Amino acid sequence: MWFRRLLLSALIGSLLLAWQPGLAKAAAFTPGPRTRLLVIVPHPDDESLAGTGLIERTLHAGGQVRLVVMTNGDGFRTAAKRAFGIASPTSDDMYRLGLLRQREELAAAKKIGLTERDILFLGYPDAGLHQLWDTHWDTTRPYRGINGHQQVPYRLAYRRGAPYCGQSVSFDLTRVIGEFRPTDVLYPDPHDVHRDHWSTSAFTQYALAKTKSAPRELTYLVHYPDYPSPRTYHPVKSLAPPARLAHIDGVRWNKQPLTALEQSQKHTSILTHRSQVRVMRDLLTSFVRTNELTAAYSLPQVAPLQGRGTQVFLQRSPLPHMIVCDPAHDQTAAQSSNADLQKIGAARDADRLWLCLEFGGSVRLGYDYALHLRLPDSTRSRLDLYVESGRIRTMLPLLQGEQPDLQCFGNRLLLSIPRSALSDAQTVLLSAEVRAHGLLADKTPWRRVRL
């Protein structure tokens, strides 16, 4: 009887998917015997939520799958309390949780056809990946995880003893991509609001920019307001992108229908992560739907500047040369449209890179703005620009001829950066943010752009 119900739900879902007005679709994922699918997840259980259908279909088609698990999930204190029946978990308890979640991952992956040899545990700190991306990049400044360690402690790790820093993560992902040579890569969506997820997305894009291969890239979403809807077990419903993200420029969504059997196996795989089901069963089982959801992002290239930057960006409407689009009205710390960062435009001339930030309301000098650039293929790995009280401050010292310039007009903030400050970069990852009264109000996702 249960199988019939699942079969009926899958049929209803496929009919619903056939009519989705206004939803830009990406090409469906159709694996074959030459498919080499690399799945990158922040925690044990994320592949169960977002990728079981793609994994199973690749294996059934004779292709290969490699699963990369960034952390062992050893930073979730509530899960440790429930798993071990303790009120105040110590760092040793969090390490124990990491071992437990590793065992759960191996069992769950087995249910969808993967073996232990197909899984690479990197072992980096749960709830700390954003720290490795933002502030603990160098090997000389390792981060201390909630598990009490500053380097990968797990015996089954891909590189046991690797320091907890961004350079280590970049090294591992770049090497994995080079060794496995994927035809397709599935990784977290850059709009995911969970810090481990968006930073995993950024690290993956960074590593892809450092490699010569050009696999097809697909992203998946797990954490976003009001997603999935409803946030409970509802297998007869389809999984649709949140309204704010459904029509973002440069993003195409694809709904991959699941058969009744695939849906059942997905459910079983999710329930195998018992330490997580105890804490957030409704969220986890809400991903058991009639389909899985992926997105494909365009990779924009910065266009040559036609005219003067001030005329092109400050005096033209709509914003020209747009490379990043952020959902409107998604600011957190302030409801004012002045703090609603919506678009980034970019152009280049022989000497400078021009970047224009557009807001929902006029630029205010009382707010603080930041533009972060990561340069994966350059001798200079990062450049951070801060606009405070109408003045530019840089995180790292620049030479006299490398100083950026700032101009404001209405709801736009225009920065021009000498090309020499970017060294020999051919690709840049960038994100912008605005702070109101010291609190983060809005930020754009990390996006990769070709220079």
Question: What oligomeric state do the depicted chains represent?
Answer: single chain
CATH class of the largest domain: Alpha Beta
**Strand coverage percent:** 25-35%
From the 3D coordinates, which CATH architecture of the largest domain would you assign? Answer: 3-Layer(aba) Sandwich
- Residue-averaged pLDDT, rounded? 91
Distance between the termini: 57 Å
CATH topology of the largest domain: Rossmann fold
Give a count of the beta strands, DSSP E runs of length 2 or more.
19
Number of helices: 11
Domain tally: 2
Name the helix and strand elements from N-terminus to C-terminus, one letter apiece. HEHHEHHEHHEHEEHHEEHEEEEEEEEEEE
List the helices and strands and how they pair.
Blueprint: H1 2-17, E1 36-41, H2 46-50, H3 52-60, E2 64-71, H4 77-84, H5 91-110, E3 119-124, H6 129-134, H7 166-180, E4 184-188, H8 195-210, E5 216-220, E6 251-257, H9 260-271, H10 274-285, E7 291-297, E8 303-304, H11 309-314, E9 322-325, E10 341-348, E11 352-359, E12 368-374, E13 382-388, E14 391-394, E15 405-409, E16 412-418, E17 427-436, E18 439-443, E19 447-450
Parallel strand pairs: 1-2, 1-4, 2-3, 4-5, 8-10
Antiparallel strand pairs: 6-7, 9-10, 10-11, 11-16, 12-13, 12-17, 13-14, 15-16, 17-18, 17-19
Helix pairs in contact: 1-9, 4-5, 4-10, 7-8
